[in-house]
Amino acid sequence: MKFAVLAFPGSNCEMDLYNAIKDIIKEDVELVSYKNDSLAGFDAVLIPGGFSYGDYLRSGAIARFSPIIPALQKFAKSGKPVLGICNGFQILTEAGLLPGSLQKNVSAKFICKDETLVVNNDHSIFSSEYQKGQLITLPIAHGDGNYYADQETLKDLVANDQIVFKYTNNPNGSVDNIAGIVNKQGNVLGMMPHPERAVEDILGSSDGKGVFQSIVKHIKSRGVIYE
Amino acid sequence: MNKVAEQTQTEATPEQIRDHKLYLSMGLTDHEYDLIKDDVLHRLPNYTEVGLFSGMWSEHCSYKNSKPVLKKFFTKGQHVVKGPGEGAGIIDIGDNQGVVFKAESHNHPSAVEPFQGATTGVGGILRDIFSMGARPIASLDSLRFSAPKTDSDKYFIQQIVAGISAYGNCIGVPTVGGDTAFDDAYEHNPLVNVMCVGLMDLDKIEVGAAAGVGNSIIYVGAKTGRDGINGASFASFQFDSEHESQRSAVQVGDPFTEKLVMEACLDVINNHSDALVGIQDMGAAGLVSSSAEMGSKAGGNGMVLDLDLVPQREVGMSAFELMLSESQERMLLCVKAGHEDEVLKVFADHGVDAVVIGHVTEGHQYQLRQHGEVVADVPVDSLASQAPVYHRESAVPEHLKDADPKQYQPQIVNPTETLKQMLDQLTIASKEDIYETYDTQVQTNTVVAPGSDAAVVRVRHHDKALAITTDVNGRYLYLNPRVGGQMAVAEAARNIVASGAVPLGITDCLNFGNPEKPDQFYELDQAVMGMSEACEKFEAPVISGNVSLNNEYDNVPIYPTPMVGMVGLIKGLEHVTTQDFKQAGDLVYVVGKTGDGFNGSQIQKMQTGKISGQLFDFDLDYELKIQQLITKATQANLLNSAHDISEGGLITAIAESTFGNQLGVSLSSSLSVNQFFSETQSRFLVSVPQANQAQFEQITGSQAELLGKVTADNHLFVQATDGYFDIDVDTAFNIWKGALQCRLK
Fold first, then answer.
1. What pTM was computed for the model?
2. What's the complex ipTM?
3. How many domains in chain A?
């Protein structure tokens, strides 16, 4: 199976994702430029963190007009896994692939530190390797990670079990302590914490491996989908 | 000679410049002006030309006051691939890999506009690293502030930190460490020093040279605007309360553009090296400095630039403004004739503006053309390598004459209360509030993040890592610049050694006062000699650096503060060691003898409000010996933790080592309560698993004193000969952790 890692101008975690998949998860992976207009041949798409277009407007607001986005929307619609991390999450909300939006942290500062998350949904294609209620440690590194959704959307998220990860010690003001959500279909996950930074004990935690292993397990058990 | 055009209507004529001595306000002296007029040009320089010289002959670009001193630096070493002189130095770390590092100061811009001053400091040093062909892998920041008293003080500190955070985080280079200290000596003149470390393949070294007649000069990156005009000579002035508004000399940073420029330049260097002759950052003194240095380094050629081709952000910019603007995120390349399109295409693919603005010529003249006329025509070497060199007068500062050799004796009634007070000192307290706003992990190689002695960044796909630290204690240098200079390097080396590494080399930022004052020059000269002695002792050559003079406010200089940035190599990731105690039952030792090191110490400052007397003794040979013992122990994997003992003394080191894993200690010692605050150098606090006791004691012999054990009960108890420290670790931790946060609110 093969992962695509999208790279926008200003992305800065694309190599971290690439290395995590190649060296640790040991699956095929390729960097895909924002200029491409096709994602044919890939089984899953990863959207990395960073500051696409400097995030001078709203985080992710410019990236979502990139040539690759229609292909991404089509890819997501076909039911294949799409994971957006940090700036990737922001791009997914801007592109309309996930509900809600990400605002400035309540502290108004960028925060980089390890956070303890609780796994709230252990049957998504991104979290099946974890147990519900399991505590995992993943780093966060963001200035705009304060997830917001209106009451109605929030009700939907809860009713459909779309909240996959929650903070145990909310660092940014996110509504309902939300750290990561999936879309209604369950194949698009956005999360602010960085699982790709937590795939080796020497870097402090390997709790993030489960996210990628869940995707691999899902694809391998389901079999390849051709376009 | 070509006809040199008269300048535009608003600019002074050559005669006016001479008659009204207008060059003085641009930073040139009478002597320097005469030199340009009589010895270099043999005619009156026009406004643009005076500008070129004022930028290039500023201290910032020419090192005219510090050159004789810098020659005293120890720069040799068998692993040094490139020493001082290029954008950054390079050291061979095996496997065809080189580590590249350098530090830059941005003190003056940060004092005027803290946010942008700090961002552009980060941006500038990054360009120095990637212009060598290296990918930046880590940044560190060494900051000096006065303790915040007013809201404006707090704002300044927060803005400087926010600037570093905004730029470093966006570009995707982890800020892995640094150091922050507080003293009123830095009021109105904060120090913002940024160090950057890069990694490269040694077969891809690039140099900043433009050779080969007909080769093209390519301008890359952001457009040129009216920001930071003549910033280099601004940085070489000193501040006073009469001139609070110097804002136009500060540049504005755009990290997104820098990221694109960086990726594009690394692409050209790695994949189009045949086309590339040289590459250089447009840093201080902007276009003139990068082009003149490139031309001069190539030797034997001239250069012509057509200023109409320079991408411009504003209309009607004069040649003076174009050449001396310090707009950020710009690079200059020299590309082989015929290969221009190949290189321009790479930049276009990365979304970066690039344009040919000139070429290398026969002869030795540096010529600028604008609107069809020659607007400057000077010998290329006269700008870059023929600035005058001054041998300044040196005199022992008043405060060092008749300094009292007797060491201060701390006044301690309740040791635990004094410890609490110590942990509340901003220089000692946790800096988490600062480093939490930096992305410390991007690139996923950070093995030891901020908070331990040195940061550790692994080299991916190799069983090795780099340890990196910045250090200097200006108070020690104020009391004895030479020994204080030795101590700055020694402390950096202790931090490197404590993390399990062996020192490779250093970079520096020499932050001093006005070199034209003999006592200030004395401090600079002595400090450099002291640093150099220590570098030689530890076999850690100086491979790059930066000089920031005139750090004065109303004629009062800062403490002499030569920031030392040291890099060490860890061969084998199993040797990585941190300062935190790891498990209950481990044995706690202090390695190295403790004396009465109180003059210049944190406790003297805390209890008397000042520092005074003769600095305590220091022995470089003993320092090396102790460091080698620790290295032996880390190489044999005998230690569970190692911590350099520095500001605040042994008791502070003990408390800090308990914080990481919420463990306690039960210790007793042959030292007095006072000595627990001594800042005697050449000491480490280590913890050793009981199974390693015999082997450890065999290595350290009489140099290690067994103090007791790490405990699981979250309580710190330390018995001294004449009293004891007794405190819950949580209580101590909360004071230490909350001090800075509380003072910045």
1. 0.94
2. 0.96
3. 1
